[in-house]
Every structure is written in C-alpha cells, then in structure tokens.
Amino acid sequence: MERRNIALIAGSVVVLGGAAVAAVPALFGDRIVAMVASNLGAQLDTKVHVSGGGVSLLADFPRLSVRLKDLQIAAAPPFEDSMLATVGVLDVHVAPLALFRGRVDVRGLVVRDAVFLATVNQDGATSWAGLGGPVDEPAGAAAAEGGVSFSIKDVVLERVAVQYDDLSEGAHFAVSSIDLRADVEDDRAHTRVAVDGRMSGVSVETGGVSWLAGATVGAAGS
Fold first, then answer.
1. Cα separation values, 162 from 77, 89, 117, 175, 200, Å
2. pLDDT in tens, 159-183
3. 51 near 70, Cβ under 8 Å?
4. What is the pTM of this model?
5. Burial class of 115 by CB neighbour count within 10 A (0 to 12, 13 to 18, 19+)
C-alpha cells in the first residue's frame, strides 16, 4: 500500500511538473517574444517588428526554443522606408542554464524564408550604417568586464535571399536562395566551422559587366 502511494505521489509530481513546463511558455510566451523583439531593436538601434511567435520548453527539451514570425528590420537613414531584412521564421534554441552563468549559449539557429537587402546609394551612404552602435570595442571586452558572452553551435539557413547594390560603384551581387547547414565547434582554443549547402541564383555584376547570372554554387568545407 505504501509503495502504491509513493508511486501515485511520484506520478502526480511528474504530471504537475510537466504541466508547469508546458504552462509557463503558454502564459508568458507573448511577453518573451515582445521582449526579444524590443531588445533586438535596442541592440541594432533601429525599428524591429514581429507579427507573432512563441516559446517552448518541450519542443527541444532541455533547450528553450524561441520562435519569431514575420520579423522585419528597418534599414538605417536615409533608407528608413525600406527593410534591411525580412525573415519569415526565426527559431532560436538556447541552453537556459547558461544564462545564469552570464552566457547566451545558442545551440541552434534556424532562418527560413528570409530576404536581406544591403544598399549603398550614390552618395556612399549605406543602409546598415550605425546599426548595432559603435564597433570599436575590442572583441571579448564585454565578457572580460563581466558582461554577457555569446556562442552559437548549429546554424540552418533555408530559402534565404541576399542582395547587395552599390550604386556609387555600379556593383550588384545577389543570391536568390541560400540553403545550408553550419556546425560550429568551439573548445576555446580554436573554433571549427563545417559548412554544407548551396547557393542558387547567384548573380554578380560590376561596371556594367555581368560575371555570373543565375549560377549555382556549392558551399562545403570546414
């Protein structure tokens, strides 16, 4: 009888714990998504809009999964009426316990159905100028001063388009679709990146001369 009671209590604890794990993201998911979008906008110093998303502890347990849908990042002045990036789906998988050690440990990053646009106008102004604030701080300085350090392991890009136009130099570069996976291994002594995928619809033009038009290029190596 005692064993049965113990089993019932243990089962109840497991059920309640699972319910709590499922309930917390459901109750606070929208707030977390809004906070992530707000912080991203603050870090980039530009307008960031997210139409929806969610948070889950069960989708990739024990990792915390954050999904942003229809992410839009505005370009810098004088290009503020256009988008620097639009992302259909952005999935980020982080190790929750690392946050308590002052680390943002991204175990997985997935970008789907995205378009990234970079432009230089006739006056030499760039659409990304000033985004992210000053860049003269030495790498790793924040971590050395007790700030938050950052690492990333797996990156997946699916149907990601990139376009770069330099109107001052007459240069154009475009990729209609990037599909690849990058695995990053970082043991602090060195970092190894293994990449496998391809880029399709690659076009390159400079000075009125077309060097590539709709080409497919493999991306593999480490």
1. 20, 16, 6, 5, 11
2. 999 999 999 999 999 999 999 998 8
3. yes
4. 0.72
5. middle
